[in-house]
Amino acid sequence: MKRRLALAAGAAAMLTLGGCGLKPLYSGGGSGAVASALGQVEVAPIEGKAGWLVTNALRDRLGAVPAGQTARYRLEIKLDDEITGLAIRRDDSVARERRTLRARYQLVELDRNGVVLDATAGSDAGIDVVGSDYATIAAESTALERLSERVADQILMRLAVYLGRTPTAP
User: Which of 23, 32, 71, 81 has the fewest CB atoms within 10 Å distance of its CB?
Assistant: First the structure.
């Protein structure tokens, strides 16, 4: 009896969700419309170490524009990387820092030379400041690497959602 009830509840849930208009973002896998559109995005160079990290993370996720084809979109990104001291010890030294990485990005459609998406992404991380300068610098660098990955993921998801909703997506 419990099994039949569970099956009936599962079937009812499937019927309910089927009518809500949801569709998988990456339907079709690597050859689907969204994946193909993401493959047509080139990433413009970004200044600084954070820029290099974000650029590489995005290029890894987007893939290269297929040989013999020109990009349909260009992704232009401006980064703001900031470290702020939070906790102060009795001797006025900083005990904790927060590293913040913010990105303002624009997706430019190259055929029209117009911005089709203008958005922001960002993340922050806490860093313990210890007695060793080397350890603190290593922690700041590791935080930047993680933040770059998070920001790249946020940008990629926003691009995928936009390109999935755009009727002209290939």
Answer: 23
Residues 6+ apart with CB under 8 A from 144: 49, 50, 53, 81, 99, 101
Euclidean distance between CA atoms 81 and 50, whole angstroms: 7
DSSP 19-78: TTT---TTTTGGGSHHHHHHTTEEEPP--HHHHHHHHHHHHHHH-PPPTT---SEEEEEE
Q: How far apart are CA 4 and CA 37, in angstroms?
A: 44
Q: pLDDT tens digit string along 75-121?
A: 999 999 999 998 888 888 888 999 999 999 999 998 887 999 999 99
Distance (Å, whole) CA 148 – CA 5: 47
- Per-residue DSSP letter, 93: -
Task: Name the region of 47 (left: φ>0; alpha: ψ -120 to 50; beta: rest).
Answer: beta
Integer angstrom CA distances of residue 45 from 57, 85, 158: 12, 30, 19
